Structures are given as structure tokens and as C-alpha cells.
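wait is this the right file?? whatever heres the structure
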């Protein structure tokens, strides 16, 4: 039942992601059954975890191949498309981060000015003493 890495290497990254998603769901189901004492073979949990690790390992290898350009022709086309997308995103991300930081800083300044601190409470002993005197 366990997956082998050599079989997974022939799959596309999208297929690997869907396989990983399915295995995650299976792992959840196995854990739920174990908790309710309905899982007869507890090795299924270990096998599923290892299968998930295998899928992610092959997926990481595939992504590295695409990034380095040493992939098959279909992967190269995908690599060029993703490289263009990531370069545009890389330019946008710092701008977003600085805008968020500026907005956050200005929000803190306005809240500092408008917030009023509550009056300090007296210790319980002093409150009792004040009540007795009244």
C-alpha cells in the first residue's frame, strides 16, 4: 500500500500536491479512528506519515529541478512562467510590507493619543479602611 519514490517521480507537481492532500485526509481519518478505538492496524498511521514525507520529498526535488533548469522540456516552460511570476511578486512584496508597517505605526500613534488609562485602584486593605472611616 505504501508509495515508492520512483513511482512518484513520474508525476506532475499538481498530481503530487493532490496526492499529499489525499494522504493528509487519510492520516486525519486514521487518527480519528485510533482515538475512537476503531483502527485495527495502527501501522497505517506510520505508513501514511512516511508516504506524505515521500511525496513532499519528490515534490521538493521537482521544484528544485524546475528552478535550476535541469528539468524536461515541459518543466522548463513551467519554470520560465513561474520565474517571471516570482520576480514580479518579489518587487510587490517589499512595497506591501512597508505599507503595512507604516499603517500599523500610524494606527499605534492614534490609539496612544486617544486611549485613556483607567484610574489606579487602591489596595483592598485601604478600601476597607476608607469604608470603616465613612
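ok assuming it is, sequence goes like this
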Amino acid at each position: 500500500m505504501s508509495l515508492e519514490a520512483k513511482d512518484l517521480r513520474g508525476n506532475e507537481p499538481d498530481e503530487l500536491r493532490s496526492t499529499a492532500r489525499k494522504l493528509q485526509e487519510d492520516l486525519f481519518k486514521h487518527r480519528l479512528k485510533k482515538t475512537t478505538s476503531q483502527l485495527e492496524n495502527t501501522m497505517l498511521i506510520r505508513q501514511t506519515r512516511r508516504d506524505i514525507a515521500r511525496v513532499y520529498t519528490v515534490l521538493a526535488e521537482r521544484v528544485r529541478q524546475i528552478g535550476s533548469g535541469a528539468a524536461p522540456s515541459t518543466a522548463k516552460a513551467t519554470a520560465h512562467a513561474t520565474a517571471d511570476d516570482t520576480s514580479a511578486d518579489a518587487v510587490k512584496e517589499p512595497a506591501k510590507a512597508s505599507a503595512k508597517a507604516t499603517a500599523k505605526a500610524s494606527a499605534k500613534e492614534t490609539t496612544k493619543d486617544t486611549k485613556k488609562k483607567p484610574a489606579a485602584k487602591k489596595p483592598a486593605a485601604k478600601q476597607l479602611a476608607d469604608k470603616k472611616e465613612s
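Residues 67 and 86 are 11 Å apart (CA to CA). so i think its the right one actually
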